[in-house]
Amino acid sequence: MDDTPGPHAGRDEERSIDPSATARSPTETPHGRVLDRRILGLAVPALGALVAEPLFVLVDSAVVGHLGTAELAGLTLASTLLVTTVALFIFLAYATTGAVARRLGAGDEKGALAVGMDGIWLALGLGAVLLIVGYAGAEPVVAAMGASADVAPHALAYLRFSLPGIPGMLVVLAATGALRGLLDTRTPLRVAVTGAVANAIGSVLLVYPAGMGIAGSGMATAIAQIGMALALMWVVVRGARARGVSLRPAPGGIIANVRAGLPLLIRTLTLRAAILLTVATATSLGDVQLAAHQIVNSVWGLAAFALDALAIAAQALVGHGLGARRPEEVRAVVRRCLQWGTLAGVGIGAIIALGGGLLTPLFTSDPAVQHAAHLGLIVIGVLMPVAAWPFVLDGVLMGAGDGVYLAVAGAISLVVYLPLLAAVALWAPDGALGLVWLWVAFAGGFLGARALTTWLRSRGQRWMVLGV
Question: What segment(s) does the record annotate as region Disordered (predicted)?
């Protein structure tokens, strides 16, 4: 397997870890509270930014929901298409973070900013292509999704007015990845919060006083995303100019970013496939189970933000440590992030498992759905510590630029998961227990396989390529 650490890696600058590397800088390895402060100093602001982003859809749902059922259904369809599309390009953040952090750790700040600029140019190019494809394909895609005659016009209106924000969304990913690699998670937090507030105000004003309806909500989202992209891009550009880094697109750097991002795209596709197949299986179990699955999945997604924040911290610190040729520091970061992840998983899991009975009435008044969702919440509460490991270790290996292995691990995990899903679809008992089987298969089987494959990799040394 190719262990190239990042898009700007040069083989002549790399060397695999060796025991003597530790002896050269033993005092540079942080321990205890110092390391905790570094991890939490990155994770806490990252968590805030992660939570701020879903507020865009939440605010749009609240505003559009008062227009009518057809409008809300159209928003659901359109926003699902947008979120899924952008999620496929999350590698713009992941690949950039590790590569920038590695350069920064090696003391090459100019190189780090150059990587960040390459990521932004790639995001702009991809965004332009998606914008054109989106306008050309919006109508047939909405039709293929099965939208009714009442819903389709509203879905198309939201899509057409929000599509100009697509390039901005991708630039936000790339610029956020660059800033995380520079160990700055506070700037993305401030921009995300400001963007969420601006979107809320703009959505209300354009939908109602301006009389644009659902199209106004789409326009407000596009304006907010473009504004966020400009704000984040300006921070990176200002740093690049101050250090004499060229702002012009570098074809070699952009192509290298594509090479580094493709394995992470495959990894993301395996994850999205598992999620979609899980929803399809829940649908086959019945309406009650499907409704309950939505509740459990919503709570799961919220809890995952805390684990994602730790993964972001691990990604930045691992990339920095490898670039600085400090293997013991990297090992310390991995151990400590896993400890924090396990602790977070136990704490969050306990709250979900013990408080599930209080949460379900907030979502539905149907006793059957409440019961099924409650059992599902107990399952994810118990298995949340298992989920912490693949989240954190994904961040570790992304920080190391080990995308090819993550793609392979994702494919292996999906192959393991498929027979478990088939067993649920064929033999799961009726009623609430069917949902229990499904979440045991996903949280225990699929994520368990991801935890095992990434843990086995992390125990070795092939991913620990030092330098840039």
Answer: 1-30
How far is it, in rounded angstroms, from Cα 468 to Cα 461? 16
What would the DSSP string read from start to end of 142-165?
HHHTT--TTTHHHHHHHHHHHGGG
What are the backbone angles phi and psi of residue 310, rounded to the nearest 5°?
A: -65, -35
For residue 353, name the pLDDT band (cuts at 50, 70, 90).
very high
The structure's pTM equals 0.82
What are 277's two structure tokens?
A: 């197949």
Q: How far apart are CA 381 and CA 348, in angstroms?
A: 7
d(CA 107, CA 400): 17
Phi and psi at 320, nearest 5°, equal -65, -45
- Rounded CA separation 322/398 (Å): 12
**Average pLDDT of the residues in 418-438:** 92
Furthest CA-CA distance within the chain: 70
Q: Where are the domains of the chain?
A: 15-52+261-468, 53-249
Backbone angles phi, psi at 444, to 5 degrees: -90, -45
377: left (phi over 0), alpha (psi -120 to 50) or beta: alpha
Q: How large is the average pLDDT for residues 260-269? A: 90
Per the structure block, which two tokens stand in for 424?
Answer: 């649920």
Give helix then strand counts, H and E, for the chain: 17, 2
Pair 82, 57: CB distance under 8 Å: no
Q: Per-residue pLDDT tens for 100-152?
A: 999 999 999 999 999 999 999 999 999 999 999 999 999 998 888 777 888 88
The two structure tokens encoding residue 62: 């609240």
